[in-house]
């Protein structure tokens, strides 16, 4: 009999940590028919005072060679009914176990001060992570939102591991300045990044839904400095933006007051740009005197951008389009079926965006049936756009796990 990949998840909303652990361990162990190689645990920030107890209590009930996890303002998992639920701002615990035959799993904890310099060779990054670039590893990262140098780490991994998929998110507390927890085997960490490198018979397919729709037309940056746009199509950026907003419907003008973003075109040569072709970035502020616009990323002359709006309908449509695309691709190939998934979504989505719970996870389940899924609400989401890895906001990142096949 062929040893097949297995993936299972359980969610508990018990308010006692001991009871929640008993709940999830009992369910996941019962549903695996082979030993677990990997565990992922996500704990609600409602248990903040008990983070130190999580790993010892789990160790009493569960033996798994590699375990990582983090705290979150909300957690995602599968109830006993079989439905995936997103539990926001309430006590909850999500535990995923996976049996991964033919897969090497390397856990790590990296602090910001350990990162190589920007001019270091790929070998410096490979030595840090402890995994060769071939065969190509897949990475799952969970990082602190404070001082973890996440962007530098992502650039370094892209540099040293071309072709690797990197997904994950930043731990969250649900409230500003509350401590977060990162978990790596038997260790509770408060800073840096914990993660795993997966090598061998495994693929992580990704869906990255940034949830915006473009407005106006693509524009070319004709003058810029660092993250400041000084000219758009040789015009004053603020004037261009004001003219665009004045041309919108009343509803969109209202939306632009609080949900306006910039989309940076990721392909220099693509003429017809669509929603998936942009990296969405925040507008940090404007200089009324100079007419300049500051954004949350570096920008250079020659780049193209388009202004975007974010709202529930656009977010829903964006995710649905991506799920349809993924489903169509799978139907036309003979690759192995997915066995499990992880979901890393922004604290700004969920009920706050849609006005109802479980929206993104239920939409996912409509296209990928009966796939066990765990995950959490993040302070920033990690996922690829056009082959490069970025730290996002207001985004849902799905990592869909399957075996490599023949």
List the main descriptive attributes of the protein structure presented here.
single chain; about 400 residues; alpha+beta; six-stranded mixed β-sheet; 25 strands; about 25% helix; globular
Describe the structure.
It is a single chain. With 406 residues, the protein is an alpha+beta fold. The chain has helices spanning 17-31, 51-61, 122-129, 150-160, 237-246, 250-256, 312-331, 350-354, 359-367; strands at 6-12, 38-44, 66-72, 74-78, 84-88, 93-99, 103-110, 138-143, 166-170, 182-184, 187-189, 193-200, 203-209, 212-214, 219-225, 228-232, 260-265, 278-287, 292-295, 304-310, 340-346, 373-378, 381-385, 388-392, 396-402. A hairpin with a 5-residue loop joins strand 4 and strand 5. The longest helix is centred in the last third of the chain and has 20 residues, at 312-331. The model has no long low-confidence stretch (mean pLDDT 94).
């Amino acid at each position: 009999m062929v040893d097949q990949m297995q993936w299972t998840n359980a969610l508990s909303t018990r308010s006692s940590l001991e009871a929640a652990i008993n709940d999830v361990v009992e369910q996941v162990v019962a549903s695996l028919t082979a030993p677990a190689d990997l565990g992922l645990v996500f704990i609600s920030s409602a248990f903040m005072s008990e983070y130190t107890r999580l790993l010892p209590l789990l160790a009493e009930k569960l033996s798994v060679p590699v375990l990582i996890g983090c705290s979150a303002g909300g957690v995602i998992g599968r109830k006993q009914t079989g439905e995936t639920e997103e539990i926001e701002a309430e006590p909850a615990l999500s535990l995923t176990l996976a049996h991964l035959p033919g897969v090497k799993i390397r856990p790590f904890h990296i602090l910001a001060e350990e990162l190589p310099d920007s001019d270091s060779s790929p070998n410096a990054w490979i030595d840090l992570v402890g995994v060769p670039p071939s065969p190509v590893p897949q990475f799952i990262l969970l990082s602190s939102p404070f001082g973890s140098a996440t962007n530098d780490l992502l650039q370094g991994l892209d540099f040293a591991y071309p072709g690797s998929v990197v997904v994950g998110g930043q731990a969250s507390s649900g409230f500003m300045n509350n401590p977060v927890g990162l978990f790596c085997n038997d260790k509770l960490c408060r800073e840096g990044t914990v993660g795993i490198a997966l090598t061998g018979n495994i693929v992580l397919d990704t869906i990255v839904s940034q949830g915006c729709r473009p407005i106006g037309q693509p524009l070319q940056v004709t003058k810029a400095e660092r993250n400041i746009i000084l000219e758009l199509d040789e015009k004053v950026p603020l004037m261009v933006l004001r003219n665009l907003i004045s041309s919108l419907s009343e509803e969109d003008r209202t939306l632009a007051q609080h949900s306006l973003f910039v989309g940076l075109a990721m392909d220099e040569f693509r003429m017809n740009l669509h929603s998936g072709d942009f990296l969405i970035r925040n507008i940090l502020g404007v200089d009324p005197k100079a007419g300049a616009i500051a954004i949350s990323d570096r920008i250079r002359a020659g780049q193209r951008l388009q202004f975007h709006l974010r709202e529930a309908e656009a977010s829903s449509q964006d995710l649905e389009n991506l799920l349809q695309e993924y489903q169509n691709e799978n139907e036309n190939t003979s690759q192995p079926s997915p066995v499990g998934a992880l979901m890393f979504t922004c604290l700004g989505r969920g009920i706050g965006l849609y006005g109802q719970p479980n929206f993104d996870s239920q939409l996912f389940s409509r296209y990928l049936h009966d796939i066990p899924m765990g995950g959490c609400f993040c302070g920033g989401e990690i996922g690829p756009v056009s082959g490069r890895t970025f730290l996002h906001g207001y985004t849902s990142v799905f990592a869909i796990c399957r075996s490599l096949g023949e």
